């Protein structure tokens, strides 16, 4: 009887860990949960805290829509090493330019969320690439990559840029998870064409970030549930949340980086960007 009870308890525990993986990293599951609404609300609250800021945000979107209606570009597709089709939007500048920017959206985001930035860069003479990262927007995938699988995926867009322009001067600009991804990319071998990173509200690593949000989202302790969920993710999704570390990457980075983080961010603590800044080896 005791053995049977322990087996049942273990199966329930594993099922709970699998549910946690789905609830945090599979958008089709997330959309069915109250937690998804909370995450979305937190993301918006990180951007909007006052009427003035909200009005500025609304104006930015209005200006962006006007820009998008007249922008010239094309939809791009690339296939990842593990066979998923990724989608990105390219926007050209009308003037001759070697300036390029790769814009990376945040957790549970989509490329259109980065269009206000795309508009800003494009109107200043940049060619713009805005991808949907795997398992988000129009791009295929089974699990959100938390920047770790995306750091390799996004090299495909850098390769594309260099196919178009060997003299390209590239900026990597990410927001939230996209910022963490951009920093993780600096831990890889980047071409000299990548001139700088703009990191807007990055997390230090995905494991720590989820640990801090466990109680808020699911009212659960970090240990041992997150560790078991991480093991399930390694088995099902092929990566470890602890490996998804912007902190480890910046310690080895030589790419000039601008760190930005609002102290009213409801999603990712500003202390994470402070830690990244202090640890960064880059100028």
Automatic annotation (TrEMBL):
Keywords: Hydrolase
GO MF annotation: an example: hydrolase activity
The keyword Ligase is annotated on this UniProt entry: no
InterPro entries registered for this protein in UniProt: AB_hydrolase_1 (IPR000073), AB_hydrolase_fold (IPR029058), DNA-binding_regulatory (IPR052920)
Stretches assigned to the AB hydrolase-1 domain: 100-212
PANTHER family (alphabetical): ALPHA/BETA-HYDROLASE, ALPHA_BETA HYDROLASE FOLD-1 DOMAIN-CONTAINING PROTEIN
Protein name as annotated: Alpha/beta hydrolase
